[in-house]
Amino acid sequence: MMNDNKYEQCRHEINARLREKIDLSREISDTEIHDMIDDLVSSLGRSYALSMEQRNELGTSIFHSLRKMDILQELIDDDDVTEIMVNGTEGIFIEKSGRLFRWDKSFESKEKLEDIIQQIVAKCNRAVNEASPIADARLENGARVNIVLSPVALNGPVITIRRFPSQPISMEDLLRFESITQEAADDLQRLVVAGYNILISGGTGSGKTTFLNVMSGFIPKSERIITIEDSAELQLQDTPNLVRLETRSSSEEGVREISIRDLIKASLRMRPDRIVVGEVRGGEAIDMLQALNTGHDGSLSTAHANSARDLLSRLETMALMGMELPLAAIRRQISSGVDIIVHLGRLRDKSRRVLEIVEILGYEEGEIVTKPIYKFTETGEENGRVLGELSRVGELTHTDKLKMSKH
Q1: What would the pLDDT profile of 149-196 be if each residue is shown by its tens digit?
Q2: For residue range 211-220, what is the model confidence (pLDDT) as tens digits?
Q3: Lower CB density within 10 Å: C or N end of the chain?
Q4: For the residues of 137-179, what is the DSSP string, one character each?
Q5: What backbone phi and psi angles, to 5 degrees, belong to 44?
Q6: Could you report how far apart the first and last alpha carbons of the chain are, in Å?
Q7: Are 54 and 135 within one domain?
Q8: Which domain holds residue 258?
Q9: Which of 67, 91, 123 corresponds to the end of one domain?
């Protein structure tokens, strides 16, 4: 306990001396900060009888609190951590290898946690406060961040960070993970290249964004791609003619909100070959459907749903949020605009699998007609891993785009 007290006393003294030494009138580089901290840790660490290991840990901790994300930086730098959940000052939980753990560290004060939150949103031109207590943002490494403040969050500021691999997952990775079969992957590649409009559905954590990224990689390099996202997460590689658009929140200073709907409308005037919408979750569904029905073939997007069939119901609901139209008109738009649905799921062993690939055939007698092309069938369990197979159960009916494809 005495040693812990010495460590904290040393930390407080170093922080106090740093505040005296830092010249706020000019920009100070990370290297200068590192040098100041090293000097103070070296001299004061000996005075407080700290071990070399404690000094190294103290120097890193103080730098992270000044220039990085304080105690969270250690987790952000750990490639094995896929999700970070900060429940106010009460505790931090992490996901590793698909399992949740409580971390042994937490923020020392609500004020420090709020400082980190403001640092996050400022870097991506977002705002979050009591008047507007919910915000989506991203970190420099592309990680997705959701923030909820009081009075909405009763146990203090809540941060949820979803990390993505530093190297984007490829189709080869998904095949190795047995998320999809080679046959289904080859078919999807042909459909993307030929310009089929494809929606990817699934629940939270099922891998929709990852799969969208992989599918986007099949788009021919000669085409102009416009990506539209709430927070930029897609990592398209080797795409020369790529335009990335991101929404913007309104602010108290009078800055106008730029929504997904605004960006979809703007993208249509930017001569896109493909439009990739990160996620459809509201009234923008009607704008996307209208785009799909006006010649913008080969577009891709994701949406939350429990099954391919459920996605159709959700699309109807979301389209009605954007425009008052008869249900029959919306269903016709869906059936003529969307060609393929790929449904993903996260099984009880935490593995992510393609569960269905469904073709939309058309609109008949007031209903959207679908046809399964691939379906995942579970066959058992071995050593805690779910066994099963994604099998072909039907042939593609609408082959016109495949026949007309120039690639």
Answers
A1: 988 998 889 999 988 777 788 999 999 999 999 999 999 999 999 999
A2: 999 999 999 9
A3: N
A4: EE-TT--EEEEE-TTTSTTS-EEEEE---SS---HHHHHHTTS
A5: -75, -30
A6: 69
A7: no
A8: 171-404
A9: 67
